[in-house]
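can u pls check wat happens w/ zinc ion
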Amino acid sequence: MTTGQRLQALAMTCPSCGQLLVPPLAGSTLTIAWYACPCGNFWSARVRDGRPVVPALALPPRPPSG
Ligand SMILES: [Zn+2]
């Protein structure tokens, strides 16, 4: 399996809007992956055992109310 194929396996759900299978951006590695969702959300995830793990602190802040 190539690195590119392994990166494609890291596609994950957007934590903001729920968009499925957002692919990792170019520049992602098998240690940390970066994502940009069409909704505008941008986040990173650590890669553990070949799966992306999103730290709670990486989740976007709540939108301002009012
Ligand atoms: Zn999204």
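The chain has one domain: 3-56.
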